[in-house]
Design brief:
With 449 residues, the chain is of the alpha/beta class. It has helices at residues 34-46, 65-84, 96-104, 118-130, 146-149, 157-170, 195-200, 218-231, 233-239, 252-256, 262-272, 277-297, 309-317, 329-333, 340-352, 357-369, 374-388, 395-403, 426-432, 435-448, and strands at 6-8, 19-23, 50-56, 88-93, 107-113, 135-138. It folds into three domains: 3-141, HUPs (Rossmann fold, 3-Layer(aba) Sandwich), CATH 3.40.50.620; 143-175 and 217-297, Serine Threonine Protein Phosphatase 5, Tetratricopeptide repeat (Alpha Horseshoe), CATH 1.25.40; 304-448, Orthogonal Bundle (DNA Cyclobutane Dipyrimidine Photolyase, subunit A, domain 3). The longest helix has 21 residues, at 277-297. The mean pLDDT is 94. It catalyses: cyclobutadipyrimidine (in DNA) = 2 pyrimidine residues (in DNA).
Amino acid sequence: MRKESIHKLNNVSSRTGRFVLYWMQASQRAIDNDALDYACEISNDLSLPLLVLFVLHVGYPSANSRSFTFMLEGLEETEKRLKERGITFLSKVGNPVDEVLKIAKNASVLVSDVGYLRHQLFWRDSIARRVESPFFVVESNVILPVGQVSKKEEFSAATIRPKIKRLLIDTPKSPAIESCFSKVLDIENFETVSLSTFLKDLKFGDDAPAVSSFKGGTAQAIEILESFLRDKIDIFCRERNDPNSDVLSNMSPYLHFGQISPSYIAKKVIEKRSPCEEAYLEELIIRRELSMNFTMYNPNYDRFEGLPVWAKKTLNEHRGDMREYIYSKEQFENCSTHDPYWNAAQMEMAFTGKMHGYMRMYWGKKILEWSESPEVALETALYLNDKYELDGRDPNGYAGVMWCLGKHDRAWAERKVTGKVRYMSSAGLRRKFDADGYVRKISRLAQST
């Protein structure tokens, strides 16, 4: 890990306790996890057992059966792998702040991983103000610490790219910790929750059902990555924008839940020495970490106010333009637009839990064009993305939806409704790939599901 990834959030210097506590939330894996490694290092130094806590928060924004099923599949594997390493895993149901503070009363040191959304920042800040143990957090889901790359919000990939590339060359990493201090820890008094039982009892109101397309877990992520590196990466840069070509790595759901490390993926891609290495790492590192920069430094990352000045100006100037079509959130959700390509994209997301990246751009652009206002478009796109996408509720998701309204982009030729925001058309899809073939493909998939 990089020392710049480790941050102390309070002024507590030391405390006597029964164990070292690692509050696992954003990095849901037992291997290649810098936060876990750092907790192990402290455990070894203090000769205290390590307790890993995960808090199941059913009130998590936009949580549903789909996201929870995928997450719990991964957590069951993580629990097993931790036990094999002699590390105790405890799962609790409730509010993360309350549950962490309860368990931390007996901890000598508290360690956690890092998420960059406002509720994750609020959790950490709330705990840091009240916990009586030293509290460290480790940025374990990025290649480079967000604050080390830049101290401000970056305008675009062009401005953040040279900063990232310089640091990738100049900043060394410390070796991973191989083992933790091993001692059996009695957790009977903590009333741990059975993950499998919790999964069976899950019930949500506004729900999206679990999907068979993706199974959660680090082992599954590694298997999919190996298949991609073996069979697809060499044509990735040529065919990645064709949704009829199955050449994507499909790592985003696993990265979202922290079931695989971006550093591990980058290492494996570099070892492959593919001609498409640079194209893939551009998405994995530059674009992904630009989205972390965005949510870290822009509190309005999911609101109209978070757009750049030029985008807000042009969209405001075209608020009164006549829309050829206006659809409600329900019509969008039910795939009830006039456009078969848009309907197919929404259907792909609803049935599989993941929409092809190129179609997601078109999907978001058309929601902007067919909504009564930019604010309504943003609300609709975020609702659908967060409900159906396994990689929704994520910095990448927020940056991607906001890109459709001009974020991290520049002004283009002016049009009605969308102003100078980049435009995409159905004719453009047909020029790019067999768009009608995509519709047929998704129709067959929906019929077989």
